[in-house]
Amino acid sequence: MGVYTQLSETEIKDYLTHFDLGELLHFEPITTGIENSNYRVTTQRFDHEFYSILTLVEGENTSRVPWVIEVMKHLSHYGLPIPKPRVRSKDGVNPELAGRPTLFMECLPGQHLETVQPSHCHQIGAQMGRLHSVATAISNTQPILFDSHWMTESFQMTQSHLSKSEAQILSHAIEHYESLSISGLPRGLIHGDLFKDNVLFQDDSLVGMLDFFHLSEDLWLMDLAIALNDWCFDAQHRMLTEHSAAMIQGYETFRPLEPEERSQLPALRMIASARFALTRLETFDGNRFRKDPFDQITRLRQLDALSPN
């Protein structure tokens, strides 16, 4: 994610004294994304090198840290490819750094995919289905993120950046989400951000799911819609039907979709695009957006054109 808190070598070395991971060899900021501050950190203890990700949790995410850690531990325990936390040698509680809560995790192997095949999408769907099934045992103590109330407030706050037609299509998606939220569709904890830059593959096998700070209760279908929108379109915003079918098939190996979910999936895909358009509209700093919201609006228009309703 984007780096908002700059750290010095001395600060990182001081932080590492709380862990039995040896001496600092190298660190570098991770400059992509729009939330939190992340660094790659390499240390050496005797002849072994350790590769880690240090996250300084920013803004509203700070209060969610203990719960997010517990959920990640639970999912990892049941075999999902989740990075394991580095344990503080003294008491297991990570210290703050620069006045911010921290996560210090192992750096998983693998890379983000540049070319996506249907087989990759099948694996994404399968791991998502596993996550939804396993997460039913977790007690959710956190407020719901990005619900229709949040979308309405965000839309009102950012509407000045939109044309009339852009505002209309976003408003329509929000209204539809309001009705679906009380429709009785299955719901539970979702990852909420399974974009390509939050998944690692090695030798065509999924080896890592990252960034759980969008974790929240929602319609399970929302998670699938978010992933379909990112993994199953090409650069020209053309829907890749074989990729979409593979992801849904993978998901259903763990949780078959209900008939009503199938019929509402096109609408949820539009709502998912509207959600991420709004999160990115909120990143305007007076000069530019930290991440382009209009790419999501283009996708929303494409999905609207393809919608059967």
Explain the layout of strands and helices.
Layout (H helix, E strand, L loop, with lengths): L8 H8 L6 E8 L6 E9 L2 E9 L8 H13 L24 E5 L11 H17 L13 H11 L5 H18 L5 E4 L8 E4 L2 E5 L6 E4 H12 L9 H12 L6 H23 L12 H13 L3
Antiparallel strand pairs: 1-2, 2-3, 3-4, 5-8, 6-7
Describe the overall structure.
- The protein is an alpha+beta fold and 309 residues long.
- It folds into two domains: 9-106, Phosphorylase Kinase, domain 1 (2-Layer Sandwich); 118-306, Aminoglycoside 3'-phosphotransferase, Chain: A, domain 2, CATH 3.90.1200.10.
- Helix content is 41%, strand content 16%.
- The chain has nine helices and eight strands.
- The strands form three sheets. Strands 1-2-3-4 form a four-stranded antiparallel beta sheet, with helices on one face. It has a two-stranded antiparallel ribbon with strand order 5-8.
- A hairpin with a 2-residue loop joins strand 2 and strand 3 (48-56).
- The radius of gyration is 20 Å and the shape is globular.
- The model has no long low-confidence stretch (mean pLDDT 92).
Distance between the termini: 37 Å
Percentage of residues in helical conformation? 40-55%
What's the count of strands?
A: 8
Give the overall average pLDDT.
92
The gyration radius over C-alpha positions equals: 20 Å
- Please write the string of helix (H) and strand (E) elements: HEEEHEHHHEEEEHHHH
CATH superfamily of the largest domain: Aminoglycoside phosphotransferase (APH), C-terminal lobe
Please tally the helical runs, counting DSSP H or I stretches of 4 or more residues: 9
Q: What structural class results from the helix and strand content?
A: alpha+beta
Shape, principal axes of CA atoms: globular
Q: In CATH terms, what is the fold-level topology of the largest domain?
A: Aminoglycoside 3'-phosphotransferase, Chain: A, domain 2
**Beta fraction:** 15-25%
**Taking strands numbered 1, 2, ... along the chain, how are they ordered across the largest sheet?**
1-2-3-4
For the record, the count of structural domains works out to 2
